Amino acid sequence: MSFFNRDLVLGRNPHYDKGVRLLDQGLYQEAIAEFEQVGTADPAVYRLARFHLGQAYAELGQRYLQGGLLERAEAALRHAIEIHPRFADLHCHLGVALRQQQRYQEAEEALLKALEINPRFAYAKLQLGICYLQRGESEKGWEAARQAVALEPRLHTTAYQKALELHEQGDLQGAIAALEQVRISEVEDIQFHTRLGDDLYRRGMYAQAVEEYRKALNVNGAYPDLHNRLGVALMAQGDYAGAEEAFRRALEVNPRYAEAQANLVLALRGGGKEAEAQQALQRLAEIAPDNPLLKPPAP
Fold first, then answer.
1. Rounded to whole angstroms, how far apart are CA atoms 248 and 228?
2. Distances in Å between the alpha carbon of 26 and those of 21, 79, 184, 232, 282?
3. Among 53, 140, 198, 288, whose Cα sits 20 to 30 Å from the Cα of 21?
């Protein structure tokens, strides 16, 4: 999500404006209802409404997942994926929802899709390992778990060590439960720092927001949206070089991430790199031809 770009179209559609406010308040169902009423008359507003509609469905899906409402989580996440098919974390969360419904083949497919998008997504690799373990493929399961920890050493927590000990004792269910605690710790840490960063950004406390986004990325750097948030906060501070680096990192993970591409244009312009900004703008035209940055300035 980009606070920066979404403000470019505020005031042009009441449903969009209300949807953004509701999204910021965590009222995801209400936000979805507003975004779905944004028509196509203004293509720029419609495109951003679709982006935030996907975000609202993603947040709602995670809320349902955390609450154990698995079928609702699955439905919301599938809506989000329809809008944002290249967001690896959405496929990963869908895999978790399917795995917890014991639909292991579908879960494996979702998790492998997440890893196809981002091969270094340690959390998805860990979830794939749990999926294999639950369907009785012990060797594949532990190998995937080991690969996850190799990708992200911070996953080698006390919970992971406990899982290894329980595995040695022959307690498969206990080992799986311990591995799931590794997941809970990581995701909750990321969400805590991200939401705190968002709140600080909205209050104009950009340096503190940068600090929180960096903390989230230190837990897991596989999320392009986190790099994008970091870049927006750095740009608000006037650190265009740092912002450029953050947006490029987001685009390394998801080359068709239109919001990060648009923000890269702004960062390059802010840093006085007009030639590079024009190249980035051409790329933006390829992946998001309705972006507001592509519209000529009003006379």
1. 9
2. 9, 18, 20, 21, 35
3. 288
